[in-house]
């Protein structure tokens, strides 16, 4: 969870840096100096309405994005941040390759669940 919050603040750092390069103020509306901007963006993201075609398979199209997020978070468990990683070191490269290849299938499922030939081609 702390990695996700750190990524949110890295994006705010990137936005601030780009605003200084472009000689403008940047995100400063929410909170002190815009520090609450990532949380405001997350609330806005979750309040968006979901638009799906009528012919789409709703169960698959709603479960595959969280599945790809879970796979990405599982990949983080094999990175040795400390002296003793949470998983065994003997097969970490194999585990990393398997989990990263499974994320491709979640993208294929997202395109397949829409029942549109163009979305299916885009997922390939």
From TrEMBL:
EC supergroup of this enzyme: translocase
Keyword entries, A-Z: Membrane, Mitochondrion, NAD, Transmembrane, Transmembrane helix, Transport, Ubiquinone
GO biological process, one term: aerobic respiration
Recorded catalytic activity of this chain's protein: a ubiquinone + NADH + 5 H(+)(in) = a ubiquinol + NAD(+) + 4 H(+)(out)
InterPro entries: NADH_UbQ_OxRdtase_su1/FPO
Pfam family, one: NADHdh
GO CC annotation: mitochondrial inner membrane
Protein name (Swiss-Prot/TrEMBL): NADH-ubiquinone oxidoreductase chain 1
